[in-house]
Amino acid sequence: MIALASANSAGSASSSWVLVVAAVLVPGLLLAGPALRRRYPVAWWVCLGFPVACVRVVRTWRPLMAGCGLAVSRKAALMVVSGLVGNGSAPPQPRVPHRGLIRPTRGGFWFLVRLLPG
Q: Is the pTM higher than 0.70?
C-alpha cells in the first residue's frame, strides 16, 4: 500500500512541474511576443507562430475541404436520410483528403495532401 501511494504521488509531482513550467512559459512568451517578433522573427515563428498555425490548420481542415468540394460522402444521401436520421443517430462525416505532417519553413509551412480518388 505504501509503495502504491508513493508511485501515485511521484506521477502527480511530475505533472505538477509540467503545469508550473507551462504557467510560467506561456504568459512569458505572450508578453515577450511582440518584441521577439520584431528582433528575432525566426525565433518568434518557431515558438509562437508555427504552433498556432498548426492548430488552426488541424481545426479547420474538415470544414475547409467540405467548402472546397473535396469531401466525399461516405454513403448515398438517400441511405443517410432513410437509415440514420430516422434512428436518431448523427449522419456520417464525409471523407476528406489526407493531410500529411506539417513542416515549418522560413516563410510559412508546407504539407502534403493526398486527394481522394475521383
A: no
